[in-house]
Amino acid sequence: AxxxxxxxxxxxxxxxxxxAFENEKAIGPYIVDFYLPVHxxxxxxxxxxxxxxxxxxxxDARRDQVLIGLGxxxxxxxxxxxxxxxxxxxxxxxxxxx
Length: 98
What we know:
By secondary structure, the chain is an alpha+beta fold. The protein has helices at residues 5-16, 56-69, 79-84, 88-94, and strands at residues 22-27, 30-36, 41-46, 73-78.
């Protein structure tokens, strides 16, 4: 699938900061947007449309519980935060030892 505009924005920040990542990584029954192996961090880009649909929040919560249960750190970034340009600091905070 083609990356969304918010995924493109996150990929750009990861590349600029030279943070290694895997895109659309399969973890258990899920495909996550970004996985940063050095930091054991999953980044999910939550678009306004898809994540506001009926049942989406419950589905996201189940996914988050499974990923956390498997030992992954998790950072969910909303479309609003990504589009505001104020998300790089969230990534940097999770990768502060990078």
